[in-house]
Amino acid sequence: MRQILNAAAGLFLLTTLWTGSVHAQVSVLAGHPLIDGAAIGDVEVVEFWLKRGFQADIRDEDGRTPLILAAMNGSSEIVQMLIESGASVDLPDKFGSTALAAVASNGEIEILEYLLENGAQPNVQSKAGETALMLAAKSGFLDVVELLLENGADTTLLDYTGRGVLSWSDDGRNPSIRRTLEKAGATE
Prior knowledge:
By secondary structure, the chain is mainly α. The chain has helices at 2-11, 33-40, 43-51, 66-72, 76-84, 99-106, 109-117, 132-139, 142-150, 165-172, 175-183; strands at 14-19, 22-27. It has two domains: 1-88, Serine Threonine Protein Phosphatase 5, Tetratricopeptide repeat; 93-188, Ankyrin repeat-containing domain (Serine Threonine Protein Phosphatase 5, Tetratricopeptide repeat).
């Protein structure tokens, strides 16, 4: 039992990286500081590990890449750095969610534009059938919905329960989004 407690306590230790001008504390919970740096938005840590040849598509225990994590927390500089270092824009986590889905659900329009410009596909469905358009509609981000539609988001896709994007927009309670989706061809 004591060994288990010691191992668990070890997981919560923080490591400090000191290299020249780089100073950052990152958790070792995810298994690699590149992942942690992306998750907390620490540009210097991500840059440090990428310059040392670590793959931009390294994954955490849920299959999330640094790109997905940076997109989740709105770190546009890290997203750009990772893509420039060869990160795959549509690489999904173990649930089938991509970086595009992450930014669609949190309204990061600037990152969304950058991902789309770099080849992100708007119609990737998670294992539950969710698309970036569904997540944006539910979250209430009209500008994100409009940008996804402009870039070919399909209004006819259904999630695993058979719900379409209009139903998802009803969850977000934004009538402007529903009208926009209906104009784009979405039906019940």
